[in-house]
Amino acid sequence: MAGVTGKTRATGGGSPAGTAPRAEPVGIPAHADVPDLDVVFVGTPDTMRPLGIKGIGEIGVVGVSAAIANAVYHATGRRIRSLPITIEQLL
Hints:
Helices cover 23% and strands 7% of the residues. It is an alpha+beta fold. It has a two-stranded antiparallel sheet with strand order 1-2. 0% of the residues are buried.
């Protein structure tokens, strides 16, 4: 929730923590917690792409595969350094 709302504070060790006073769950962000998004069209179509689309949406998901690979490592103890991660790599 702190990632969506921006409500964080520093703990005694210098690391950020949610604003919950104790280690109680603060809830899972829902659709209503995300602020409104604005769609902005920029300039002219991109002539290098068949549909003329200019997109930057993929930039926000660059770290997802690394986070999943890290979660797999913590769950299984096996570090996988190639994608896609398959069951065969874990066996």
